[in-house]
Amino acid sequence: MSSSARLPVRQQTQEIIRSRERQASLMKELVSPKQVARAIGASESSVKRWCDQGVISTVRTAGGHRRIPVNAVLSFAKSHGHKLVQPEVLGLPPSTTGAGERSLERARKRLLAALVSGEDVLSRQLVLDLYIAKHRVSRICDEVLAPVFHEIGDLWECGDAEVYQERRACEICLRVLHELERLMPPVPADGPVAIGGALDLDPYSLPTTMAELTMRQCGWKGVSLGSLLPAASIANAIADIGPRLVWISVSHADDADRIVEAMNQVYEAARKHKAALAVGGAALTEEIRRRVRYSAFCDTMAHLETFADSLTSN
After folding, report:
1. Which of 41, 148, 152, 247 has its CA 20 to 30 A from that of 171?
2. Could you tell me which residue ranges the B12-binding N-terminal domain spans (predicted)?
């Protein structure tokens, strides 16, 4: 396929990146100093002073009024030890204070029950509380979300959970992760680009979404391309976007030969365009690993974060 034939794809993908950058730097929700004061239990005059001092990232309306992105409020609250006393003012669940469930193990147990029961609001509260309590996204993914879905899978296989409960839990979790992304600080304008996804025959989008957020927290412009992706399409994305890092998540691998062929095709595309390839996933068995080429094997999000950091520290 010629480069001109792929031009619309390139334009669309670049627009996705630009859109996510705009969304991160200026969330749809901009709040006033009065609302921030109510949310964190401070005086409005103190909030205005922090804005004017540059302690809280602020924008001005056409009329000169201060407006504050919600992600800037959360960054300030996390770094200065303020609890959210009225989180609903920021559009968060009423019980999301940052002073709630801070133990990853206790949160895991409560989140398992909440997801199986389909409790959307409680699931949001548990995950967002952990983030506001300064747990890194990689730890939340590795020590809470991944174990929870492993347990849900076990319940399903044993007949103790219905298929709809597992699917519903995935949908709830995806919504929570997308909300969490909007609450994260903006990625630096000069941040390196990373893309990734899951190959065809692999319908699971949750792991690649976790990878995207992990990359964004460590300063990368991470973009998940989704699941069920043909290797040739990923290769085209690498050529179009020019990322420094590519990740592939393998959560389903019934056809090992096809997976090996696809992953090696992606590796060759990454190598051609001087990008590193990180692979991981619950279905990436030792037998498959021996037959594929990659730059790094990351069996946790923390490993992916460490590998990404190693690329930018050189």
Report:
1. 247
2. 108-180
